[in-house]
Amino acid sequence: MARTIDPAEVTRQLLTLGVEPGSVLVVHTAFSKVAPVDGGPCGLIEALQAALGPAGTLVMPSMGDNDDQPFDPEATPCIGMGVVADSFWRMEGVSRSDSPHAFAARGPLAQEITAPHPLDIPHGLDSPVGRVYGLGGQVLLLGVGHDADTTIHLAENLAGVRYRLPVYSTILVAGKPTRYDYGEVDHCCRNFALMDRWLDAPGRQRRGGVGHGEARLARSRDIVESALVRLRENETVFLHPLGVCNECDQAWASYPSGDPSRSLI
Predict the structure, then answer these.
(1) Residue 220 maps to a domain
(2) Residue 164 — φ and ψ, nearest 5°?
(3) What number of other Cβ atoms are within 10 A of residue 173's Cβ?
(4) Is residue 1 in a domain?
(5) What predicted TM-score, i.e. pTM, was given to this entire model?
(6) What is the pLDDT of residues 245-255, one digit of tens each?
């Protein structure tokens, strides 16, 4: 059985990787890949906060799990985002945005990052990931790859991609639960793995071990700029060809030309 790692050691690993004290850090993590850490998920959060210091702001996804229920930032779980994220929003001093596409944050910039954001453009400039981008923050992928990196959706929105997935959320209208249908820039996201070579080659991504997991660290602006270069060459670069997966097929169905030959994958 793997040894249990002390949070102080995890903090040292994070600083060695390049996490900047006083910065804004978005974290996507699978605790099963990092564990065991003393204190469990809360021990990992402690290590992240210690690396950032009191001037830093820690940010995590906090989206609800059930589209058929109105989102309540005080009560709605986000189990689908992992046990660390679902533990984080419940902690003292954490702000959570009031949106089915919620993010949670703790630190001096938490309220700014989690301020109200549009429902139907969940990852635009006026969203938590967009605000982290504007603040020059970093993105840490801990035990997960870029398929979990919502910052890449910001690049898709900035590029003006023309594909959407049909989705819905349940919101309160005059106190009554109401279904709201819209189109979201999304797909299966597996081809976000292309970001590794686009970031590794020019040295815009750092890799290392954190806990027992593999970590990737990059600046939000480097992720967005690297993705934008490719999206401006081919806006469907992240979509699989037709027939590979249902999510990408639905995205293609919304594409104005309907021509899958544009995909270079």
Answers:
(1) yes
(2) -145, 155
(3) 11
(4) no
(5) 0.95
(6) 999 999 999 98
